[in-house]
Amino acid sequence: MDIGNTWKDCLDFIEKKVGKSTYDLWFKPIKLVELKDNDALLSVPNRFFREWIEDNYPRLISDAFEWAAKDNINVQFKIDQEPAADYVSVVTQTRKTRLAVKGIFLNPKYTFDTFVVGPSNQFVHAAALAVSDSLGKTYNPLFIYGDVGLGKTHIITAIGNKIADTLPNANIIYVSSEQFTNEVVSAIRHEKMSDLKEKYRTVDILLLDDVQFIANKTQTQVEFFHTFNALYEKQKQIVISSDRPPKELSDITDRLKSRFTMGLIADIQPPSVELKMAILQKKAETHKIILPDDMVYFLATKVKSNIRELEGCLIKLAAHSNLTGRPINVSLAKDVLKDIFTDESKPVTTDSIQKVVCEYFGVKLPDLKSKKRTKEIALPRQIAMYITKKLTGLSLGDIGKAFGGKDHATVIYACKQIEAKMEKDEEFNKMAEYLINKIKP
Ligand code: ADP
Ligand code: MG
Question: Cβ distance 46 to 80 under 8 Å?
């Protein structure tokens, strides 16, 4: 196997998945140091790169290797600049290993200790604490909902981590509804349904993340319904997260939705500026990032609502400050965080949408407006049309015109295609939301 070429193929694969700007910023600087047997050693410029990639794209590089080398490859990172492992990562790694031995996979960083409480999330926080203090007895199920990036995964994982500490023998499962669906599909195909039942119906606590993705998946819903009942009867704890309240979940059966409302429903609201500032300070402290007070305020007001985005900006700044030796200040922010410096009074235009989408997918504007129907072009075009429909007041006919004179039926078709994909595919949904957030003033 030619190492250089394998890595080049991996990078191509990654660029296609994440888009050019993310690729240039985060993946291009990575080098393959060694590829031996089934182990790959990659070098990244500093620890922020590793952290950012592990948090945002935990499986992407292994997927890329699997695609390029047709084999399962173990990926390890080596950090160019800082040889010494910092304390935080040692602690979290230890916890991760300890839990993995028991077959529990929880992100060790998401604990109650690292969750900053403010008015927008204190209700959820209190409910989550109450649940972890008396499993299955206070609120069952606990149903948590809120917009993307506001801390749902963090808080439900914190429950799991706390139980793992206080009840070492507890059987805990954290699963996203996508993964649950995959397991159901695979169990059906390999006639292993009874194993699946055994696995899920014997837990002490089931944490089901992003339940909205089981919409339309009938068999998964049936299986989850029976799992739910079995656990509920045994007073085992169920915690569910969702991007919307139960009654707004379309294409989920009524009997399941009514189960979701049997316990407590708690929502997470977008954070206030003060909470955002507190979160930034805490994250900066944990990551040992020197973040001046004026920058705390600056970022908290610039980044509108999403905490993931807020954290992403901080890590981006730290990564590039570390790489270039420049201090974290407004001037660095202007260079590194171009996305958040859009003029807020400006309305969204088709031009700006097309520009962002072209940049993201690395396609040329004339191609986007052309009649070409290859997948590489048709998909970005459909997404751009969908976003234009969503964010501008333009008529379908005008949207068609702005895309090189297409008719309104083409625009409707594009929007339907994209909506269907967003319903079905979590990764796709995230990508579309990311683009929309990037374009929105
Ligand atoms: P969701 O699942 O709702 O999309 P996440 O739980 O993944 O959001 O949170 C996004 C990021 O924001 C995570 O890195 C998480 O640690 C962080 N975060 C969210 N809420 C808080 C909070 N209250 N305190 C500290 N970090 C938070
Ligand atoms: Mg989540």
Answer: yes
